[in-house]
Amino acid sequence: MSSSWTPDESSETLLAEKGWLQGTVVSAVAYGIDVALYFMCFHLLLRQMNRTNYKKYLPLLIYITTTFILSTLFMAALANFTQLAFIQYRNYPGGPNAFENNVLMGNLGNVCGFLIMTLSDGLVVWRCKVIYKGCMVPMWAIMLFPCLMFTASFAMGIMWLLQVATDSPYFSINYTIPYFSLSLALNIIITIVIVLRLLTYRYRISSALGSSYGTQYTSIAAMIVESAALYSAFSVAFLILFNLNNPISEIFIEALTQVQITAMLLIVFRVAQGKSWSQNTMSKVMTSRPSVQAIRMGDIRYGGSKTFTGSNNFMHETDKNSGRDSTEIVMGKVV
Fold this sequence. Notes:
Elements: H1 11-48, H2 54-88, H3 95-102, H4 107-131, H5 139-165, H6 176-209, H7 215-218, H8 220-226, H9 229-243, H10 249-273, H11 281-286, E1 300-302, E2 306-310, E3 314-319, E4 324-330
Antiparallel strand pairs: 1-2, 2-3, 3-4
């Protein structure tokens, strides 16, 4: 290809435009994953819901459906904005990069992005509360800081929406960086505290029962999903590249919303499978270890005259010569 066809723009501008376009593609890929996860979650929740437990599963169905609709609208707005920049208004002074920086995506995309971020932040705060249930530290002391950060992030989001939607001089302050910084910091902090809590549980369970118990709750994969570490990793990468003024940060900021939904749907999927951590999980795992006495013995013959047969709760000694039970030993269940 001839170099004369290259736009008369700096290499930094071209790299930023490449990052933006590639970020839109990554966002579309993440949206495809979200579609698959949504229908998997919806199927599991709907199948398990009945008249006795609908109060547990119906809010999750409403939650994921609302978020999925918002993510679809956001993806449509992002695709339309990308089309405007690279096709319909490609001769905008400064090119697509200047178009992105100076022209707003539109109220639909901004409102959907704000609502998605608020709902996703609320979910991780809720998961933090569930995982720390039963902690020796009072729950209000644990949840005070995350709740304050969530409230501050929500307030900043409202100010950000008013800033981008109006031309009022009262909103001349740029709320974009404070808003996104608070939301990203909230998710990163909650990821760390959830992982620390699950690591503590893992150590306690392994010390008491062995490393093979409770792995579905404390494995590396479980900790990544439960703590929304996928979104936090994307957030950290974006913050590092953004502070370095690296144009590649455009890839992460474009895909951040859909990745956040992916992390949220993975949490709901574990809840629907019954594999997520709950307030009863610790006691469930600690009582799942079979005691030595409760192990099924099978048939143990002694001189062909007696047979021991056992179950999880008791064991019979049967005298074959007499054809009747001569001794019954009740074995207590160890918890």
